[in-house]
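Researcher: Checking consistency across runs. Here is Cytochrome P450 again:
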Amino acid sequence: MAFMFSVWTFAVPVCLLYLIKKLWYWYNISKSDPNCSAPLPGGSMGWPIIGETFHVLFQGPSFYEKNFAKFGRVFKTHLFLNPTVRVHGPDNIAKILQGENDIVTSTWPSSTRLILGEDTLAMAQAEEHAFMKKRVFAAFSHSALSGYVSMIQKPVRMAIEKWCQSDEVLAANVLRHLSFRVAADVLCGFHYTDEDVTELCQKFDDIMKGIMTIPYDVPFSRFRRALQARDFIKQKIDENVTRKANLDPEEDTQDAMRILIDLANKSDDSSSKEGLYEAIKNQTIEFLTSGMLSLSSAASTMLYHLAKKPSVLAKVREELNDYGLLTDYSPLTLNKINQCRYVMQVIKESLRMVPPIGATFRTALKTFELDGKQIPKGWTVFWSIRETIHLSDSFTDTKNFDPDRFSPQRQEDKVAGRFSMPVFGHGTHSCIGQNFALLTLRILLIELARTCDFETPNVDKIKFSWIPSPKPKCGMPTRFTRKILVDQNENEVSYSSKSSTCPQGEDSRERSEEGVHQRSTTCHAA
C-alpha cells in the first residue's frame, strides 16, 4: 500500500506538469493562421510564460545549433514572453529584410524597450526611423569619420601605453573601458575621468545583463538592477547634455549628440523641446551601450584570434611597413588607413568568426512563409546572423581564422552575396555606426601592431559567454610589452616594460613577476 502511495505521489505531479506543458503548447499553436496551408515550423514552446528563455540564457548558441540540426533552417520556440521563430540562411534573411514594413517590422524584447526607452533610433519604426536615421547620419559621413581618426587614436594610444606599464591586464575588461571612452568622447562629446569610466562601465554591465531578460521588476532581479543602472546613467548624462546644450555650436565638437541637440534647440515649443531632450538622453544611452556591447566584443575577439595566430599579426606589420606606418610617430589619416587592405581583412575575418550580435528581431506584420513553413502574424522573427555565417556553404574551412578569404583574389564574401555575412544587418535598420566601428577596430589593430607585443597564455583554453554579446569568460589575461622600434636612421629606440605569468587554475588568482627588458633589431613579432 505504501508503495502504491509513493508511486501516485510521484506520478500525479509528473502527469500534471506534462499536461500543463502540452496545454501551453497547444495554446500557442492555436495562434497559427488557419488561412495559411503551410505548417508551423518544428520546435518546442517550452514552459508556460517563460517558454525556453532560460534554455537560451544558460545554453547560449548550442541551443540554436541543436534546434537547427533537428528542425532545419526554421524552428519555433517561445522567448522573452513571445512565440518566436528562429531562422537562418541568406535567402530567408533576404526575404525578411526586403519585406521590411511590409511583412515584418523591427522590434526588440520588452526588457530592451523598457530599459533603453522607445524614443531611440533602434526602437523607431517606419517614417520615424527614417527621419531619426537621417538626422544622425551626418555624424557618420566620410568627412566626419576623417575628423574622428585623431580623436580615436589618442585614447587608443594612451590605453595601450597603460597596458604595457602593467604586469598583466584582463584584456576583455580594459577593451570594454576603451570602447566606452571612445564612444563617449567621439560620438557623444563627453569627457569622463578614469573614475567615471570605471563606475559607468559597471552600471552598463548591469544594463547588459538585464537587457535580454524577462521584464519582471522584482527585488534583486537583473531587470531591476538594469533599470536602476539606467536611471543612474541618465543623471550623469543629463549634466553633459545640459552643458552641450548651453554651448555655442561653433565651440562644441560636431558629434552625433551635437546634431540632436541643435535640432532640439530649433523647437519653439518648450514642452516639445523637453521631450526632445529626454529622447536625446535615451539616444545617448543607446550609443554608449552599442559601444560597450558591440565594439568591445569585436575588439576582444580580434585580440583573441591574433593571440592564437601570431602569423596574422606579423603579416599586418608587413603591410604597415609597406605603407610607412610601422613607426610609432606616424600620424594616421583615413586615407592611409583605407590603404591597408589586409588590416580590413583581419577585422572582417574576426567579425565572421564571432559576430558581436548573434541575431536581431522582427515582428511579423502578416502571415508569410519561409522554407515552406508558416510564420504567423504577430510572432517574433529572430533572424540569425551567427548561424547564417557559420552554416554557409560559401565560406571555405569556416572554423579556420583566415583573413585571406577576403583578399581581392578570393573575395569569398562577394561570391557568397550580401546576405551571407550580415554582421551589421541590412536594409533600413542596418547599423548606422558600422563604419565608425570598423574605423575604431582598424585604428586599434594598427596601434597594437606597431607599438606593442602581446601574449595571452593558455589562449586555447579560453571559453566565451554569449549573452548579450560574446566575451571571454575569464577576462582574457594578457601581457602587453612595449615594442622596440627602429627609427628612420636605424637607431634602436628601446622601451622597458613589465611582464608576468598567466594565472593558472581559477580566474580570480593573480601572480606576477618582475618584467625583463626586451631587445630586438626588427619591428616584427617576437
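Researcher: Does this match what you'd expect to see?
Model: One thing to look at in this run: The mean pLDDT is 82.
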